[in-house]
Amino acid sequence: QTVYPRTESPVHLELQDTELWSCFESLSTEMILTKGGRRMFPVLRVGVRGLDPETLYDFKLDFIPCDNYRWRYVSRQWQTNGKQDNTSLNQDRRYGVTIKGEPYSHPKSPNYGRFWMSDIIEFKNVKLTNRPNPTKDDHIILNSLHKYKPRIHILQSLSNGQPNILLETFTFPLTSFIAVTAYQNEEITALKIRHNPFAKAFQEPRDRTE
Amino acid sequence: QTVYPRTESPVHLELQDTELWSCFESLSTEMILTKGGRRMFPVLRVGVRGLDPETLYDFKLDFIPCDNYRWRYVSRQWQTNGKQDNTSLNQDRRYGVTIKGEPYSHPKSPNYGRFWMSDIIEFKNVKLTNRPNPTKDDHIILNSLHKYKPRIHILQSLSNGQPNILLETFTFPLTSFIAVTAYQNEEITALKIRHNPFAKAFQEPRDRTE
DNA sequence: ATGTTTCCACCTAGGTGAAAACTT
DNA sequence: AAGTTTTCACCTAGGTGGAAACAT
Question: How many angstroms separate the CA atoms of A166 and B129, rounded?
Fold first, then answer.
């Protein structure tokens, strides 16, 4: 007879800006890749509870392929050719991580539970690239026209040289996206322009009541 | 008979940009205080050796009064009235530290010895203020027209809730300065403009050979 | 008279999507 | 034809000292 665990991990991660993410998700989120690295928008932001205040943790981010398809945007619809694509994803395991083959480490890592729980944790400085050999640690290598799902890992950091212990991994289906080198869906472009302050140059003058 | 220690701490801190600091020191360095907080220029930068790569350390910065005098710039010379000033420094021990009464903590604290030793450590984001109750942790409260000497503290950070252990404190006489709300010595102003990229608006066009 | 505060033009530094050029 | 790269104007964000206004 199956024995189910009586307790669950006390650690809770709560995704922020779910309303905004939903708007993008309903149109199929796209994220830009450039050689020099492009930030994500929206930014991945989470609140955390249930850590031990005085224990040391690392927070890390990587991207897991949602499938092995190559996606195309045809007639205002994302579609696949129905065949698995084994040429890129399966051959190069680095895709979705940094040049070191490791997830992106939040720049405040390592830090104490009390620190991580004291404020929203923002992954605003991670950059997405299609360059196979980026020179910076904050660059995540992705494959254009492939679909990814962000994951956040919480590790216990040990200050004696031992490897860190992976405590838990959280995935956020709402934040999955297709990596592109240029936006395909113009509605996605419009949403980005509307909400990303750095794209203000392209905003139409808007009604104050909105 | 006096017994002298046979060993010294293996930790070495090496101040960077000593040539630049010397130029300022020879004119009497001044640092601006503002309500909103002003960065230091030059920036305090150090290299560190001799830490244990796998031990966790905090790096902290504060400012120790060089004396209890109030300084005046008269006839192109800094001078005191020869009397100790007991009204401000001795009554308010917070001067030279943050609003919490603590030194400024380098934003990458805590981190491992291998991290701190891997690159120059820059205190470029600390801000100096004369506001008695700043709202931000990166603000150091100083008293205008008083003279200070920067100190860097290295602490061992313990990930079990125990208070950190102060391992060593380094002072840098070359970087001492008088806090001011407006520059007094125009030669200091000229040096700041010449070397601080953010003051480029005030630079005279310069000869390329310089 | 002396010292402080506020506001400002002018920078650094770098994040946007558009459009044109380029590649295959 | 389909996708990628480069360059660009236009932003965000914020660090300078100057100058005038202000405070004591």
Answer: 42
